[in-house]
Amino acid sequence: MPTEPAKAHDHSHGDDGHDHAGHDHTGHDHPDHGHEGHSHAPQVSNANERVVLIAFVLTLGFMVAEVAGGLLSGSLALLADAGHMLIDAAALALAWAGFRFGRRASDGRRTFGYMRFEVIAGFVNAVTLILLVAWIAYEAVTRLLAPETVLAGPMFWVALIGLVINIAVFFVLQAGDKEHVNINGALLHVTGDLLGSVAAIGAAIIIYFTGWMPIDPILSVLLSALILRSAWSLLKGSLHILMEGTPGNVVIDELREHIVQTVPGVAQLSHVHVWSITSGRPAATLELRLAAGADPAVTSRAVKAELRKTYGIVHTTVEIDWGNGAPECDLLAGDAAAP
User: Fold this and answer.
1) What crossing angle do the helices spanning 76-102 and 181-210 adopt, rounded to 10°?
2) Which residues, in sequence order, are CB contacts of 325 under 8 Å at separation 6+?
3) Residue 235 in 3-state DSSP?
4) Which secondary-structure segment (H or E) carries 18?
5) Could you give the angle at which helices 116-145 and 215-242 cross, rounded to 10 degrees?
6) Measured distance CA(200)–CA(235) in Å, rounded
7) Mean pLDDT of 17-38
8) What are the CA-CA distances from residue 281 to residues 41, 245, 271, 284, 307 (Å)?
9) What percent helix, strand, coil does the chain show, rounded to 5?
10) For 244, left (φ over 0), alpha (ψ -120 to 50), or beta?
11) Rounded to an integer, what is the distance from CA 196 to the centroid of its chain?
12) pLDDT tens-digit profile of 279-300?
């Protein structure tokens, strides 16, 4: 004679159409769920924070050197790239702050802590990249209309040092979680810097041997197109999380059908919502209608286990839908009379 439902929480939200009586929260504690991508989240966050901080220090340090090189050589290209590096350093600092705040514990006002701050930082990174592309395009047009003389020698050596620094930063960031929006954003910034260094080296060589100054803005436009494509992808990814979109491996109708067919005791799923709190941390809520004779607690745990196993969803809230609007006590009395 099961009596578990009588102990369930009553979270009534009448204005959204959900009667949240009967929540089973047994899946909210998160020890080892057997899903490797999620069981080591704190260590990954610490590693991400460390690599982004190292990348920030290297980027900011070379930005200062590049400003000096640009002033020495009279290269507007180097000064423009220094501005690029300054924006990248700011973006890396923002990403670091995202990881630092994102690891703060939850409290009474922020029940998921500050994890979403990481996604906001990724979104801002994407926006700054797009603004940077617009600025590069404007500078390129200006230089095409009025080319300036550049000392190719100093430009070449400063760009070469920049290439070495950017390669080092790129490999540092490779040690982080590359699927995370902040690490992905930082990698996109550094990739842009790396391509910018290659373009500056090529432009310096061409200017040295031919004296053709327009090559610098032309290469800048090509670089901008590459950055824009990556920035747009990052913008869509971070905005999708902020808009509570489903993770890429989840299609709600398929998930509902899979659970009904796979988990014994499930008659129907409704009001299924799946979203990501931040990168790699999906969550779900759903209403579960039980098959005849099914045990509510056992079935709820089985649904949570299947969601962890198949979809990597480690935070699930299951509400029991008792159906037909009948009083809960009548349904419990019926369960008590069942064999």
Assistant:
1) 170
2) none
3) helix
4) strand 18-24
5) 160
6) 27
7) 40
8) 9, 13, 20, 10, 13
9) 65, 10, 25
10) left
11) 25
12) 778 999 999 999 988 999 999 9
Report field, pTM of the whole predicted structure over 0.90: no
Closest of 243, 265, 279 to residue 320, by C-alpha: 265
Calpha distance 17→199 (Å, rounded): 58
Token pair in block for residue 227? 């950055």
Quick one: average pLDDT of 219-237? 78
- The two tokens of residue 296 are 């509510």
Average pLDDT score over residue span 185-191 = 76
pLDDT of residue 304: 95
Cβ contact 288:278 at 8 Å: no
Query: pLDDT tens for residues 37-76?
Result: 333 333 445 667 788 888 888 888 888 888 888 788 767 6
**Residues 258, 264, 268, 272: is their CA dihedral positive or negative?**
negative
Say how many Å lie between the first and final Cα of the chain, rounded: 8
CA distance linking residue 339 with residue 333, whole number of Å: 12
CA distance 206 to 247: 47
- Whether 260 shows a pLDDT value over 90: the answer reads yes
DSSP state of 220: H
- Give dist(CA 144, CA 152) in Å, integer: 17
> Residue 32 contacts by C-beta under 8 Å, 6 or more apart in sequence?
39
Q: For position 177, what pLDDT does the model report?
A: 62
Q: Return the C-alpha torsion angle 169, 174, 179, 184, nearest 10.
A: 10
pLDDT of residue 111: 66
- What tokens appear for 165 in the block? 């620094």
